[in-house]
Every structure is written in structure tokens, then in C-alpha cells.
Amino acid sequence: MLFDVAVYQRVLGDEIRRLRKKRGLTRKQLNRRLQSEISLQTLATYELGTRQCSVVRFVEICVALDEQPHELIARVHERVFTDSPRGRVRLDLRQVVRDDHEELLPLRRWARGRLDTYPNANAAEVHLDFAALEQLASLCGLDTVELIALLRRIGGAAPEPVAYSPFSNGHDPNDEDD
Predict the structure, then answer these.
(1) Which domains does the chain have, with CATH numbers?
(2) Residues 6 or more apart whose Cβ sits within 8 Å of residue 17
(3) Which tens digit of pLDDT belongs to each residue from 3-28?
(4) 25, 109, 122, 126: which has the fewest Cβ within 10 Å?
(5) Beta strand pairing status for 125-129 and 157-159?
């Protein structure tokens, strides 16, 4: 089975960051709980998913966060392989525009503009990758997981069907959405 390593890394980092925040810890506080010394920059790059972390370091972070490593990995696998195996979420812009959650105002404005620009029915559904979802979440003042959960509650987001790419980097060069 092939998968997009960059997406996996970003989701793993997002889960670590989400768990740290859930525990009410700053990166500095988490760093003090680690058994070995690492820089705050290294910890940040793990959370951003821009740097790979060894299994031993991953377990050390989980222990410092009072989390079972297999449970955190299970959440990552669920997001990467079940919810959105290619790191994409289908977004129904019509549902987003109809919603009235205050925090989704930037997203609603973007969705309205897109629907006005492309009025045909096919334009109402877009496929967003994890990087785009991260950007939208940031604009809305939410973390990525919160944004996806909120979009799913309002009916604006649905998972992609399970389908794995035969290409080593996870992207089909013939796929115009990439």
C-alpha cells in the first residue's frame, strides 16, 4: 500500500500539537517533560509535520503527553487512511454559505465568491487537501481538526472514498485536482 508521506507527517504533527494544547501545555512545558533534550524549534517542526521524528522520540513525546503511542497513531491512521486517504476532503460550498457559525465567516466569504464566479452546479463541490484545510482553519481561528469536524456537522464536508494511488508520491500526474 502506498501513501503520501508528507500528508502522514502533517497529520501526525497536527495530532501531537492538538494533544499538547488539549493538555494545556506550551511547547516549552512539553519540552521540559521530555527525557532527552531537543530544541523548541525541533519540537515545532515535528508539530508542523516538516520534520520526521524517530519512533523513540515519538514514544518519548507521547509519554510526556500522558498518551499511549498506539492510540495517537490510531488517530493518525484514521485521518489519513479512513477519512481522507489522499489527504483531501470534499467540501460542499452551498452548505458552507448557508451556515451561520461566526468563526466560519472567512470561509463563507470565500465560498460565496467562488459560487458567484463559477455558478454551475459542478463548482459547488471542491476537493481540499490538508495544506488548504490548514490555511482555511488558520483564517477561521480554528485548528484543522476543529474545522473539519465543524464542516462535517454542517454537512459541508464529506470524506473521499477510499482509493489509493499507484504512484509513489501519492499523486496521479493525470489528476487535474493535484
Answers:
(1) 5-83 (1.10.260.40), 88-159 (1.10.10.1930)
(2) 47, 48, 143
(3) 778 888 998 999 999 999 999 999 99
(4) 122
(5) unpaired
